[in-house]
Amino acid sequence: MTAQILIVEDNDDLALGLANNLEIEGFSVEIARDGASGLRRAHEGRPDLVILDLMLPALDGYRVLSGLRDVGDEVPVLILTARTDEHDKVRGFRDGADDYVTKPFGLLELIGRVHALLRRAQPSRRANGVTEARFRFGDIEVLSGTHDVYRRGAPVTLRPKEYDLLLALLRRKGRVAERMELLREVWGYGADVVSRTVDTHIGELRRKLEADPADPRYIITVRKSGYRLQPD
Questions:
Q1: CA-based Rg of the chain, rounded to a whole angstrom?
Q2: Shortest CA distance to 170 belongs to which of 126, 124, 231?
Q3: Which residues have CB under 8 Å from 219's CB, separation 6+?
Q4: For residues 59 and 69, what is the distance between their CA atoms, to the nearest angstrom?
Q5: Are 48 and 3 in contact (CB under 8 A)?
Q6: DSSP 198-219
């Protein structure tokens, strides 16, 4: 089935050029030229991926992203923006973005990231070698077959990338996972991605799973290397 991509971008030349190249790749593409219509079309059309500018008329990109996540819509969102400040990138990831690309950008790189996000959004992870299993550490329980996560018996809502990152740590059984390893395994690409991507998602996992995120018991930082999940 052809993947449906929604581009929310007020620069007509950029939007049309990107749409043309994505259609050549075999995708079906729709364009929204302001934030309000972009949010409406995302709700109505249920695209497989959204490419979202931040500086939009009517409704900025952050509000569009929040409008999706606040109603539980987990469609992959790739932010495409001229904003290069680290604060903007971290805010985008905290608000639920799956990737962040700054303008100007390389077309081949962007298309590669689109493919990677769509791959990661597939409901079944068996192709990645993850079989159904039950994991426990402390008061956390993870059911990989249904992607359910519980803390002290209560369900915990993880975004897709947060869940994939947790599973990547679990599979290592206490071994250190380097940041670049996690970028390749969870996001599907390497050194050119925003360097804070892994750190930001680790911070969200700690906030949701640790009793004291500032002094984590389970998700441990290994200085100058990466992270490991410390079992009981």
A1: 18
A2: 231
A3: 169, 202, 205, 206, 209, 210, 227, 229, 230
A4: 15
A5: yes
A6: HHHHHHHHHHHH-SSTTS-SSE
Tokens 């987990």 sit at which residue?
Answer: 74
Copy the structure tokens of residue 87. 């604060």
- Comparing C-alpha atoms, which of 49, 52, 53, 68 is closest to residue 5? 49
Around Cβ 94, how many Cβ atoms within 10 Å? 13
Locate tokens 């050194």: which residue? 191
pTM summary value: 0.62
Confidence of residue 124 (pLDDT cuts 50, 70, 90): very low
Average pLDDT for residues 34-55, to the nearest whole number? 93
Phi, psi of 202 (to 5 degrees): -60, -40
Quote the CA–CA distance of 27 and 32 in Å, as a whole number. Answer: 16
- Contact call for residues 34 and 46 (beta carbons, < 8 A): no
**Residue 148 CB burial class (10 angstroms; 0-12, 13-18, ≥19):** middle
Rounded Cα–Cα distance for residues 51 and 200 (Å): 20
Q: What is the edge-to-edge ordering of all strands in the sheet holding 154-155?
A: 134-137, 140-143, 148-151, 154-155
Looking only at the bridges linking them, the beta strands covering 49-52 and 28-32 are unpaired
